[in-house]
Amino acid sequence: MIRKMKKEDLPAVKSLMQSVPKFWHEVWTDETLERGFTVSEGLSFVYEADNQIAGCIFGYNLGFRGYLGELAVYEKMRKHGIGKKLLLHLENILREQGCEIIIADAWKTAEPFYRKLGWSEPHTMLLHKKLIDK
């Protein structure tokens, strides 16, 4: 079942993120997670199975486009459609809010997942710059 994320969910969401290899960055803190939740303005969701959080997604409406910040599903819960359900849920809400496109910086290993759901690379390229070196 998908529901809006609550602040009380953040410790469980952090555990989920930390369970995925290389997902949680060492510079992230509890405050980082809380800020991501707060600025999503109600576009962060969890998927519950057996009264436990099995997946989460953080979305953002930037006005001119939607953005997928983070999507994580426990390894043992993958291949059950949880990530797909979370992503389609976010896409539908952003569409209703008038977002023409949604963008994400996804792991290369997740490319087949996104492509199956109609995603493709944009006509632009993703660049990044490290602001904190650890």
Which structural class do the helices and strands define? alpha+beta
> What name is given to the CATH topology?
Aminopeptidase
Question: How big is the Rg?
Answer: 15 Å
Spatial strand order of the main sheet? 1-2-3-4-5
What percent of residues are in strands? 15-25%
Task: Kindly report the average pLDDT value.
Answer: 93
Please tally the helical runs, counting DSSP H or I stretches of 4 or more residues.
4
Oligomer: single chain
SSE order, one letter for each helix or strand: EHHEEEHEH
Question: How is this structure best described in words?
Answer:
This protein has 134 residues and is an alpha+beta fold. The protein has helices at 10-19, 30-39, 82-96, 111-116; strands at 2-4, 44-49, 52-61, 66-73, 102-104. The chain has a single domain, classed as Aminopeptidase, CATH 3.40.630.30. Helix content is 31%, strand content 22%. Strands 1-2-3-4-5 form a five-stranded mixed beta sheet, with helices on both faces. The chain is globular, with a radius of gyration of 15 Å. 22% of the residues are buried. The model has no long low-confidence stretch (mean pLDDT 93).
Secondary-structure map:
Blueprint: E1 2-4, H1 10-19, H2 30-39, E2 44-49, E3 52-61, E4 66-73, H3 82-96, E5 102-104, H4 111-116
Parallel strand pairs: 4-5
Antiparallel strand pairs: 1-2, 2-3, 3-4
